[in-house]
Amino acid sequence: VQLQASGGGWVQAGGSLRLSCAAYGGTFSRYGIAWFRQAPGKEREFVSTIRATRTTHYAESVKGRFTISRDNAQNTVTLQMNSLKAEDTAVYYCAAGNPILSAVRDPDMYHNWGQGTQVIVSS
To answer: Which of 41, 59, 73, 86 is surrounded by the most beta carbons within 10 Å?
Structure first.
């Protein structure tokens, strides 16, 4: 499956953005889709995932502000980001994989990655 992330942009702190991850090829409904982000000079970090079972997981730093959802009919996963903070600034990547529950936050467990979309939050 090939992934394409979109929806990034510039927003003031407290604002919202919606990221989309579109999938092409493969059987989308069988894959878990995760969002990771990478800020300059920092390692890639887990943001959220929605598994093939629709179970969701969030990083503590975004819990209560971000919501992940999937539409298998449209082969898309959406990350709704509200109450954005300057520390959310990063390039956001979506990735496909089916890691075991204890490994959903490990980027090495995902085998297909989108190209990334930049999110800039100004304070």
So the answer is: 59
On whether the CB atoms of residues 4 and 18 are closer than 8 A, the answer is no
CA distance 21 to 19: 7
Amino acid at 43: E
- CA separation for the pair 19, 78 (Å, rounded): 6
CA-CA distance, 110 to 95, in Å (whole number)?
6
The SS3 assignment for 101 reads helix
Is the per-residue pLDDT at 86 higher than 90?
A: yes
Which pLDDT does position 78 carry in this prediction?
98
Environment class of 50 (CB within 10 Å of its CB; exposed 0-12, middle 13-18, buried 19+): buried
37 CB-near residues (< 8 Å, 6+ apart) = 44, 45, 47, 88, 90, 91, 92, 93, 119
